[in-house]
Amino acid sequence: MTIPEATKYGVDIPVGQKEWLTFYVTMPVDITTAVEVSFLTPSFETRPILHATDIKFAECEGKNVLCMDEHVDLQRNFATTWGQTGNVTTFMSMDTATSNLGYVTNTGFTKKWGGYVVDDDVFAVKVEVQMSDHPLTLNDQVFDVYFAVKIGDTIVVGK
Question: Considering the domain 5-158 in this protein, what is its CATH number?
Fold first, then answer.
């Protein structure tokens, strides 16, 4: 899993504004396996600092990973759940998003046919977050959004 340089060091989001954060996943070659992606936004004292508001596939160069491009409606086609961690008690404030992508296939076509590059095995998922009016947001603090991907029995977490 990689995080693009442009978002590695943070994004400045004013209170109330929404921003898309993109995460990239590299699938092993020649595999069909269950895949699940999850996002967790920060919270403090029963309130989320960032609200998770939407999730979708992002534009990506992955030629070998099937049905994972930006034109596929992630929420309509895959089981997506929104939730709250134990830290959040406010009504309708979601700080987690999880999408079960079912079984994902990396065909490895470009490796078999020639012209293979690592980006052929990549798909991208992005989450839309909205900055809350939490008191901590007034002090120019940095907050992490965590992304986890489960590929088969392996779980990788990044921020």
Answer: 2.60.40
What pTM was estimated for this model as a whole?
Answer: 0.84
For 93, residues 6+ apart whose C-beta sits below 8 A from its C-beta are 47, 48, 51, 84, 132
pLDDT at 9: 52
In this predicted model, which residue has the larger pLDDT, 43 or 92?
43
Inter-residue long-range contacts of 150-154, CB under 8 Å, 24+ positions, other chains counted:
150/34, 150/35, 150/36, 150/37, 150/38, 151/25, 151/27, 151/28, 151/33, 151/34, 151/35, 151/104, 152/31, 152/33, 152/34
pLDDT tens for 54-97 read 999 998 878 889 888 888 889 899 999 998 888 888 777 888 99
Distance CA 116, CA 127 (A): 29
| 3-state secondary structure at position 75 | helix
SS3 155: strand
Cβ neighbors of 135 (< 8 A, separation 6 or more) are none
% helix, strand, coil for the chain, step of 5 = 15, 45, 40
